[in-house]
Amino acid sequence: MEVRVQAGPFDIGAEISRFTEGRTDMGAIVTFSGLVRDSAAGDLRHMEIEHYPAMTAPAIEKIAAEAVSRWSLGDAMVIHRHGRLAPGEQIMMVATAAPHRADAFAAAEFLMDYLKSRAPFWKKEVTAEGAAWVAAKDEDEAALTRW
Amino acid sequence: MSLDILYFAWVRERIGLPRETVQTQAATVSDLVAELTAREARYEAAFQDLSALRVAVDQELTEFDAPLAGAREVAFFPPMTGG
């Protein structure tokens, strides 16, 4: 299990290769990556992601450990960036490895649902109009109840 | 007791600082919020709607009625928007 919280970019292809290397016991790898999406008006200058350094990695590790134990995963990985990110840049990725795909898919969705609402990150969007904090969505909180 | 208090996102912006150390006898997070709110308008502005806030004590998410005995660090922030 690996959790990384970093300002710099990552190479998703290299990360997946490293994650799967030598895993002859895992038949399924699921990966998800989240990108900075431009505003509807197309005027997003950048996104600023703030986090709580002392809490971020431990909170994600707890979520990942829960995923590994619930779905008998072979491994799980989470990389999440913070700081200033331009539209189209990768914000984060998760990867799960399991013998069969159902576990890998379910665990990846679980990780994403919990990262959205329980990992201490806050997004701010900076456009030509000014800066605004992204509000948490009710449906993101509601998504946790399905687990 | 001495407590480190951290603020994030718009809570940090409303209060105007990212962290501070306070001397307090507050028994719970709610008591601490009441003490801070009584201080200055900027705290009142940040804490006016607790349903819009989350709190962590020693880096663990908790509720506003959580006890502070033995705590070292309390953080206030809006609902998280990770992922």
Give your account of this protein's structure.
The complex is a heterodimer of chains A (147) and B (83). Chain A has 147 residues and is α+β, with helices and mostly antiparallel strands. Chain A has a single domain, classed as Molybdopterin biosynthesis MoaE subunit (Aldehyde Oxidoreductase, domain 3, Alpha-Beta Complex). In chain A, 35% of the residues lie in helices and 35% in strands. In chain A, the strands form 2 sheets. Chain A has a 4-stranded mixed β-sheet, sandwiched between helices. In chain A, strands 5-3-7-8 form a 4-stranded antiparallel β-sheet. In chain A, strand 7 and strand 8 form a beta hairpin. The relative contact order of chain A is 0.24. The model of chain A has no long low-confidence stretch (mean pLDDT 96). Chain B has 83 residues and is an alpha+beta fold. Chain B is built from 3 helices and 5 strands. The N and C termini of chain B lie far apart (36 Å). The longest helix of chain B is centred in the middle third of the chain and has 11 residues. Chain B has one domain: Roll (Ubiquitin-like (UB roll)), CATH 3.10.20. The chains are: A alpha+beta (147), B alpha+beta (83). At the A-B interface, helix 2, helix 3 and strand 7 of A face helix 1 and strand 5 of B.
Gyration radius over CA of chain A = 16 Å
Helix content of chain A: 25-40%
C-alpha geometry of chain B? globular
Mean pLDDT of chain A: 96
Amount of beta strand of chain A: 25-35%
State the low-pLDDT regions of chain A, or none.
none
